[in-house]
Give the backbone structure.
Amino acid sequence: MAHHLAVFPGSFDPITFGHLDVIRRGRHLFDELVIAVGRNPGKDQLFTIDERVTMARTLVDQLVKEEPDTSPVRVESFSGLTVDFAITAGAAVLLRGIRNLSDLQYEVQQAVTNREVAGLETAFVVAGQSFAYTSSSLIRQITALGSDLSQLESMVPPSVAEMLREKKRQKHPLLERLLEHQQ
């Protein structure tokens, strides 16, 4: 019987409750799940790759404790093309979360390209209603522009919200640029 390993790639900058929902559900769909935290040189990152991997591992460990009888999951970082990482990891499929129609349009285009270029299929999980409008970029904007960051608590776990508060206290350059663009 085939072993169905899925790779859930993303920047996870920061990881959200929506990401954790996809991870939770992916563990029920596949024999094994790899959370692939990517380095994108074309994107400004709020958190370093090490911070993002640590956040993801901590939260995934909590998920595993809550649901020990579902498929194993691990967190790895990668650079380069997602399909190259997925093939090297032995993936049968890429797992992607879809929040809305805009996501679907982009993701279908990526899925077709990944299938044509690398022979890699993509499985889509539709986000729960409470996650439909949550994105890492929105969370970074709220962090940069908001005076009351308690609104983040519905979008990210408490440990991530605290790390966001710390980045704001440190006046992280990405948050400062977002702030400047609004003035």
User: Anything to note?
Assistant: The beta strands are 5-10, 32-39, 73-79, 93-98, 121-126. The chain has a mean pLDDT of 92. Helices lie at 17-29, 49-66, 82-89, 101-118, 136-145, 158-169, 173-182.
